[in-house]
Amino acid sequence: MTMEHAYVRDSMVDARQPPRGTDGPIAWLRRSLFASPSDTLLTILGMLFLLWAVPPIYNFLIGHAVMPGGTVKECRAEGAGACWAYIYARFNFFIYGFYPIDQYWRPNIVFALGAALIVPLLMPSAPFKRINAVLFFVVFPIIAFYLLNGGVFGMRYVPTEQWGGLLVTLIISLVGIICSIPIGILLALGRQSQLPIIKTLSVMFIELWRAVPLITVLFMASIMLPLFMPTGTTVDKLLRALVGVTLFSSAYLAETVRGGLQALPRGQYEAGASLGLGYWKRTYFIILPQALKHVIPGIVNNFIALFKDTSLVSIVGIFDLLNTVQSASSDINWSSPTQAVTGYVFAAAVFWVFCFAMSRYSLWMERRLDTGHKR
Amino acid sequence: MAVQDNIGGSAPRTSLLNDPVFRGILYQIIVGGLVVAFFYWIIVNTAQNLAAQNKTTGFDFLFRTAGFDISFTLFPWSRTSFYWQAFLAGLLNTLLVAVIGIFFATLLGFTLGIARLSSNWLIARVATVYIETIRNIPLLLQLFFWYFAVLKAMPAVRNSFELPLDVFINQRGLMVPRPLPDGEFIWVLLAIAASVIAAIAVGIWATRERTATGRYPALVVQAAKIADAVVTFLVAALAFSLLSQFVPALASSPAIAWIAALVAAVASLTRFAPYSRAVVAFAITFVILAALLRAMFAAWPPFAIDLGAAVAGLVMGWISLEGTLRRPPSEGRFPLALLILIAVGIPALVYVVTGAQLAFELPVLERFNFRGGVQLPPELVALVFGLTIYTAAFIAENVRGGIRSVNKGQTEAAQSLGLKEGDRLRLVIVPQAMRVIVPPLTSQYLNLTKNSSLGAAIGYPELVNVFTGTTLNQTGKAIEVIALTMAVYLTFSLLTSAFMNWYNGRVAMVER
User: Whole-angstrom Cα distance, residue B449 to residue B444?
Assistant: First the structure.
């Protein structure tokens, strides 16, 4: 009865046009640069911006730059770009600070040893993780200290005031992270603890150091630490900065670790308890291995932040990379209009390479560890 | 059945040390005791050290004369001011930088975060390069760069760069006009506050009515039509007057621009409204682009720039036309123009009626220095620049994460409800993204405030510089000064986390 209302097509539909290409460079251009009129406009504006911004930057960094081997006269010329010759001439100062030139082999060994230990540590597939970790986190700092400080095995004593440049930046960040990992883990456990006094103390510690800027912590460490010690004790300037940095970063690390502890399903805690394990055994064998694995990217991000923050020690008078660059920029022998900028660009490039590499590593780890257990 | 022997008997006796409750108490006593002992040791040492140095403790130094200069304060400062005033000056300078920095960093950060998600490859790439570069360079280094390499390398006072609106920049900082409100101007300020509240109230009321009845109140719709015409007239008048500057034949007769604006406004009341908007969009785009490109590419022929800007203007006009032709009738549109008119118009009316005056004292170059205006020190400018650029990179990442956290299904659900792109964003995506964005955003604001302490390194007189630096050096009251400074930042931090808890509680998703 409803047949007369129904519409039945009795002829073939015309064949449709094939879809426009969805592959190939032209389709890509259409999709990602010229999808709509407003998109096209944005693309053109973006290109104009690049046209405006890139040539001067290129000319400064490469085009009109004075390459290593150039002279200060060339750097002083009108319209000269970055003075790389100056960086080349002062390179050792930026890396070693005031470390005695004939002793450069000592920091060099430390650099090489550190690199040789940290590379396999960061590669998940490399064997002997446990030994490697012990070597890097415990043995290496001790060896490095005696190598750099000297005074043993006939090596000349080099006071910490003479250490400087990238060496000190790396020392502070490595010591900071190595010392703050155990403290941070203990604080995170303390914050999760059922015991009220321990929990309160941990929360207070963490929140206090997280609330204040690092610069006040460093001021506190460098001014108040000597006051806290028994009369007559002197605390090395570098050590004061290390204490400040460690306190500061352990509070941040504690929060990262807490994230890992909280992400763990309750069942893991209960399973540990039902096996009859006590708190420490349960934590050590069941909780921490899983929790720490999950926060490796977070710890690396903490390390990146710490690495950048080490530049603040220049405010309390330690010659880290930034401070050597800053003080070299008043070097009369190389004074030129671009001297300061060149120094900053160099320091920025060094920091950038380290931080960017670490952030890529952290992203890679995150993807690797993401084994699909997310709830 | 040996196991059953225990039934009915008392719990097996074990060593007291194995009792969890007892152990917990014991641990706490040990830890608490160690902490107390540690602090006791520190206090005894400190007391001895202070006694050895003949120093006293106490906060009475706050009421002594400071006797040093502060290069930039928000209230009158002299060498006879007290230390507590120095504390206040530093605190206010910190807050000043934080507020300005937060404002600009939010703008830049949201723009970059959205740009990084853009489907336009070029725009997304530019934003990514910015974020990845800035994030991975220490802030202090960036501050040094802006201060020592950029602002200190600015030309001397006599060769100052002149920016638009009578702003000058040179080695000594940024010279901006000083507003000189007269006594009546307070009424205008009150009117601004009242009218903004009124506009928000009208907006909420209209939205509620629409939610309840399905349409905006008739009164609002009528008022919105008129407001639309008025706003169109004002915007068009501005755009057309600027446009006529580019056409020599029209530059001499400003009346033409006003007449054209009137025509556009009248047209916006008729069915030709989309065309009137398209013309205005063309004018705005052309004026902005032409001025910008002329400043960026001074070497290019102006004619080519104008031509390019005109083409871009036509494209924008066309986009606007397309969009306006498809929009719902005015009964179904949010009365944005009305709200703007309320918020801006009422204060303007009060300004005229009360005869209030807001004059500006312009900075004028004299022989050696600028006279008049406000001189913002280069330290402040560098600090705002550095903090804004650095924090914006982090905010952009939060914004990106927030928007991406909204499930794709939400977009599709909104589409299937027939919502347009704008409504989809405003009603579905943004409210859900904000839930994710706001908590990390607040902690970025806190970070910016804490990072403003790096101003001490470039000589900006904020709290750490004035108080932990100069005051501590002069008085030697290390403990008191550092404790006060830390207390300030601790307060900021606690306030922020209080806000975050409140916000999280308010927006938390109600789960089954």
Answer: 9
Domain presence at residue A123 = no
Pair A234, A365 in one domain: yes
pLDDT digits (tens, 9 = 90+) for A132-189: 888 888 888 888 888 888 777 877 777 878 888 899 999 999 899 889 999 999 999 9
CB B31 within 8 A of CB A197: yes
Give whole-number Cα distances, B58 to B148, B191, B249, in Å.
39, 47, 75
Q: What averages of pLDDT result for each successive group of 10 residues across chain B (512 residues)?
A: 50 70 86 92 86 80 81 82 87 92 94 88 92 93 90 80 80 82 80 91 89 85 86 87 78 79 85 86 88 84 86 87 78 82 85 78 76 83 93 93 88 88 82 86 90 90 88 83 90 89 76 52
CA B328, CA B318: separation in Å to the nearest integer?
18
With respect to residue A4, please indicate whether it lies within any of the assigned structural domains. Answer: no
First to last CA, chain A: 55
Q: Please tell me the distance in Å from B453's CA to the nearest CA on chain A.
A: 7
Which residue in A47, A227, A344 is closest to B144 by CB distance?
A344
| Cβ-contact B352, B178 below 8 angstroms | no
- Best of B130, B136, B305 to disrupt the A interface (most A CBs within 10 Å) is B136
Cβ within 8 Å of A, B 37-76: 42, 45-46, 48-50, 52
Range of the domain at A51: 24-85
Q: For residues A335-343, give the mean pLDDT.
A: 85
| A216–B453 C-beta distance less than 8 A | yes
Q: Which residues of B touch A337 (CB under 8 A)?
A: 153
DSSP conformation letters of A260-301: HHHHS-HHHHHHHHHTT--HHHHIIIIIHHHHHHHTHHHHHH
Structural domain ending residue among the three candidates A85, A116, A131? A85
Domain boundary among A62, A85, A108: A85
The reply to whether residue A42 touches residue B118, judged by beta carbons under 8 angstroms, is yes
Across the interface, which of B136, B453, B486 has its CB nearest the CB of A352? B136
Q: What percent of chain A has pLDDT over 70?
A: 97
Question: Do A308 and B138 make contact, defined as CB atoms within 8 angstroms?
Answer: yes
* Inter-chain touch B482–A219, beta carbons under 8 Å: yes
Residue B461 half-sphere exposure, CB side, CA atoms within 13 Å? 20
Q: What CATH number did the domain enclosing A352 receive?
A: 1.10.3720.10
CA dist B483 and A144 (Å) reads 36
Interchain CB contact of B501 with A (< 8 Å): no
Q: How many domains does chain A have?
A: 2
Pairwise CA distance, residues A216 & B439, whole Å: 25
Same domain, A195 and A284: yes
- Give yes or no: residues A232 and A363 share one domain: yes
Chain B residue nearest residue A307, CA to CA: B138
Residues A65 and A169 in one domain: no
Whether residue A317 sits in one domain with residue A186: yes
Residue A331's pLDDT is what?
A: 81
Pair A176, A272 in one domain: yes
Residue A356: inside a domain, yes or no? yes
In a domain, A345, yes or no: yes
CB pairs under 8 A between A and B: 175
For the entire predicted model, the pTM comes to 0.85
Given an 8 Å threshold on Cβ–Cβ distance, is A228 in contact with B315? no
**Which chain A positions have a beta carbon within 8 Å of B24's beta carbon?**
194-195
The CATH number of the structural domain formed by B83-174+375-507 is: 1.10.3720.10
Residues A172 and A292 in one domain: yes
The answer to whether B485 contacts chain A (CB < 8 Å) is yes
ipTM for the predicted complex comes to 0.86
Q: Which residue in the set A47, A213, A356 is minimally distant from B122, CB to CB?
A: A47
CB-side exposure of A79: number of CA atoms within 13 Å? 4
Q: Where are the domains of chain B?
A: 16-55, 83-174+375-507, 233-328
CB contact under 8 Å between B136 and A228, yes or no, is no
